[in-house]
């Protein structure tokens, strides 16, 4: 049974500070306070929101990306760090479960990373996007199957995927087989144009229906001044507008509250966890509706390691006998 019969969730759509990690962290912590004051127990922020999504990589050719890519290295989050400690403390202080997207720096590489903090401040999950999309492959490394994991939290069983990972049906199925109750997702927002927001809505509603879970999705937002700071060409600036769909979807595929498709704000809704059983009574895709004797998933849960220590056992050599 779910940990709580009703969970109040908040999906946050705000702009990052494109100039500093500290500025974006301040916005995150202020939003946590605002959402918690409104009774939220589960709060989701946009994709790689700290310090910011690498919008530059969508409009700049690779040969011109170097300075901005290096600046992202300098502003990225290491784990653990003062930023992760601040997020953990915010979760503990307000008794909320937080899902925050960060650019994670691990020595010489960056990763698109999702962090789930439980209500006691524990880091319940750190996972990396398994396949960066298109332009993102110039920016981030790849995650592994160890991150495709559902975790028990104060509000229930939570799974998470980022952006177009939702177009990998086996990645979604890996979470579904672990019986996620609340699915946290996020996209960059302010990208591609209106069609991106439409596609997000279809994808979120489909996952909620297929998994029989709630989906809490957050997308980011850019102001006109921020768009102009990324690129001065009006034609390319069109690719940095719209594409927002911050929403909360029920297991029946319905919006639990009106979605937010522009500007800053929050979508807040109460999740009636009984709807999970109501949906799965009709169609449980990893239970009575599954056919594992015909179709099943092979999931490699081992962390990807560039080095594995190995010390062979010494070989015993028998001394020759005197006989």
UniProtKB/TrEMBL annotation:
Domain CN hydrolase positions: 7-273
Pfam families reported for this sequence: CN_hydrolase (PF00795)
Gene3D superfamilies (UniProt xref): Carbon-nitrogen hydrolase
Range of residues in the leader sequence: none
Renumbered residue ranges of the record's region Disordered: 303-323
InterPro entries from the UniProt entry: C-N_Hydrolase, C-N_Hydrolase_sf, Nitrilase, Nitrilase/CN_hydratase_CS, Nitrilases_CHs
Family note: Belongs to the carbon-nitrogen hydrolase superfamily. Nitrilase family.
PANTHER family xrefs: CN HYDROLASE DOMAIN-CONTAINING PROTEIN, NITRILASE
Designated name of the protein: Nit6803 family nitriliase
């Amino acid at each position: 049974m779910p940990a709580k019969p009703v969970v109040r969730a908040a999906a946050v759509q705000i702009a990052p500070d494109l100039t500093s990690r500290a500025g974006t962290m301040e916005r995150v912590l202020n939003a946590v306070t605002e959402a918690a004051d409104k009774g939220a127990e589960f709060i989701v922020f946009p994709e790689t929101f700290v310090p910011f999504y690498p919008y530059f990589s969508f409009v700049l050719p690779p040969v011109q990306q170097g300075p901005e890519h290096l600046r992202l290295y300098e502003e990225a989050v290491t784990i653990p760090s003062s930023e992760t400690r601040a997020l953990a403390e915010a979760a503990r202080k307000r008794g909320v479960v937080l899902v925050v997207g960060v650019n994670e720096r691990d020595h010489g590489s960056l990763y698109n990373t999702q962090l789930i903090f439980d209500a006691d401040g524990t880091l319940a999950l750190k996972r990396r996007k398994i396949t960066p999309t298109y332009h993102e492959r110039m920016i981030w490394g790849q995650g592994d199957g160890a991150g495709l994991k559902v975790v028990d939290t104060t509000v229930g069983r939570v799974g998470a995927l980022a952006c177009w990972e939702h177009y990998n049906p086996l990645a979604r199925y890996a979470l579904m087989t672990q019986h996620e109750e609340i699915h946290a997702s996020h996209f960059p927002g302010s990208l591609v144009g209106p069609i991106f927001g439409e596609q997000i809505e279809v994808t979120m509603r489909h996952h909620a229906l297929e998994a029989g879970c709630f989906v809490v999705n957050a997308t980011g937002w850019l102001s006109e001044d921020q768009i102009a700071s990324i690129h001065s060409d009006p034609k390319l600036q069109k690719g940095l507008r719209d594409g927002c769909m911050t929403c909360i979807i029920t297991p029946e595929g319905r919006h639990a509250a009106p979605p937010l498709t522009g500007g800053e704000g929050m979508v807040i809704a109460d999740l009636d966890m009984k709807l999970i059983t109501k949906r799965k009574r009709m169609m449980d895709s990893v239970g009575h509706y599954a056919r594992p004797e015909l179709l099943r998933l092979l999931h490699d849960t081992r962390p990807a390691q560039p080095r594995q220590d190995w010390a062979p056992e010494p070989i015993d050599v028998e001394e020759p006998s005197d006989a």
